[in-house]
Amino acid sequence: MSRLSRRTVLRGLGTALALPLLESVHPRVARGEEPAAPPRRLAFLFVPNGVDSTSWTPKGEGAAFELSPILAPLGPVKDDLLILSGLTLNTARANGDGPGDHARSSAAFLTGCQPRKTAGADIRVGVSVDQVAAARRGRETSLPSLELGTEPARQSGSCDSGYSCAYSSSISWRTPHTPMGKEIHPRLAFERLFSFGGGTGEAAERRRAQRRSILDLVRDDARRLHRRLGGTDRLKLDEYLAAVRQLERRIERAERTSAAAEGPPEALPKDHREHVRLLLDVSVLAFRSDLTRVLTFMFANEGSNRSYPFLGVKGGHHQISHHGKDEQKVRSIRAINRFHTSQLSYFLQALKAAPEGEGSLLDHSMVVYGSGIREGNRHDHHDLPIVLAGRGGGTLSPGRHVRYPKETPLCNLYLSLLDRFGADVPRFGDSTGRLAHLDA
Q1: Burial of residue 4 (number of CB atoms within 10 Å: 0-12, 13-18, 19+)
Q2: Is 227 exposed, middle or buried (0-12, 13-18, 19+ CB in 10 A)?
Q3: What is the pLDDT averaged over residues 24-30?
Q4: Confidence band (pLDDT; 50, 70, 90) for 22?
Q5: 3-state SS assignment for residue 4
Q6: How far apart (Å, rounded) are the C-alpha atoms in residues 193 and 70?
Q7: Distance CA 333, CA 70 (A)
């Protein structure tokens, strides 16, 4: 390592381990100037099948609001939240196309466009907001964007009333005809961040066979860097490397206990809870190391009928979302909803615990969580369950519940976030303007 830069990278055989921003080695700091402001980040987390609407909306508006039963797991980060009520995804409605609300809701969630009803290869919807952001700012990072999920994407076949499976399993679209592939294997996601060639090259295979940590390959470079850092940055480096190694070990442990442990090294974790958290931790590391500033995560594909036995829930998610007001099924939906918001809370707390500049990663992020369906039992697309977390580098004023007029487009929110991300466009999807009341 001949010189230090703000974006420091430790290198080893087949490996490039990017590090958090080290302010003490920034050229401006060396000249006695103030360092540049930390970058802003965008994340979109999608949940399928809507929510139990009777247990979602908070009591009260403005700063004097109480978290609802479903949102209660977000208590530790309440002051970092904007709960946005009244937003609508009109392009997820039939609008003359008949049934297929699940496929439309995921296809339209980040595009704001009505998908073409087809189960063939002639799919079409629109470019998603994350890819608009990546196209304008993605050159500033190694990965323009990162797409993750827990269930595989399907590009063919009909998954919902004549709509292609591509619509149900994708929320990120690079072009109107091309969904972005998402990574569902924690090991491959991890190695995509920290290995040349996405962890699939000869060096990565040899490292796996020898059971060597990525940190083993960059140890010499890390030692040289450590000697050149100030005390604060040494602690920051040590803590970060420990977090990388901890995640690596958890991935290894999940693979060993997987039902497919005898299969490929990137076998999916058997425990769905650990699967979700491993991918969320990969997301946090991707933001901490500034390898990407744009992220999408699908907790499951739209219409997913995944079971949640660890919650004591009987039946599949999609099946019981059509509860017909059966109280047992409603309780089961609430349990699934709370599980998802507890994972959101886990992610936000991890971002908040990661220092950056004068604040935290969460302070410099904008995290959207929600669904393109409000109530799975009715397949409605108004008053969606939407949470916006983070402070957007000081451009958002969280800690409030904001209610918007009926039929306010969800895309108005995206237009406002693109402005704050530095990727402003005149309009997006079915937007009618910027969303008010996001700042103080």
Answers
A1: middle
A2: exposed
A3: 55
A4: confident
A5: coil
A6: 33
A7: 10
The DSSP secondary structure of 350-405, one letter per residue, reads HHHHSEETTEETGGGEEEEEE-S-SBTTTT--SS--EEEES-GGGT---SEEEEEE
Mapped onto helix, strand or coil, the DSSP state of residue 248 is: helix
Residue 105 has pLDDT above 90, yes or no: yes
Domain 41-184+274-440 carries which CATH code?
3.40.720.10
Total residue count of the chain as it appears in this document: 440
State how beta strands 146-149 and 294-298 pair: parallel
Mean pLDDT (the chain) is: 90
| Residue 337, both tokens | 């909803």
CA 166 to chain centroid: 19
Q: Which amino acid is at 148?
A: L
pLDDT of residue 18: 84
Q: Which residues pair with 297 in a beta bridge?
A: 45, 148
Q: Residue 436 and residue 420: Cα distance in Å, rounded? A: 13
The H or E element that residue 270 is part of is none
| Coil/strand/helix, residue 226 | helix
Inter-CA distances, 230 with 29, 226, 264, Å: 12, 8, 42
Distance between CA atoms of 153 and 166, rounded to whole angstroms?
A: 7
CA dihedral 373→377→380→381, nearest 10 degrees, is: -10
pLDDT score at 4: 38
Burial class (CB in 10 A: 0-12, 13-18, 19+), 342: middle
Give CATH 3.40.720.10 domain extents, the chain: 41-184+274-440
Closest to 24 (Cα-Cα) out of 193, 226, 224, 222: 226
Among candidates 325, 297, 333, which has minimal Cα distance to 51? 333
pTM score above 0.90: yes
CA of residue 305 relative to chain centroid, distance: 21
Dist. CA 1–CA 155, nearest whole Å: 44
The Cβ-side half-sphere exposure at 302, using a 13 Å CA radius, reads 32
pLDDT (tens digit per residue) in 275-289: 999 999 999 999 999
pLDDT, position 203: 57
Q: What angle (nearest 5°) sits at the alpha carbon of residue 304, between those of residues 301 and 306?
A: 120
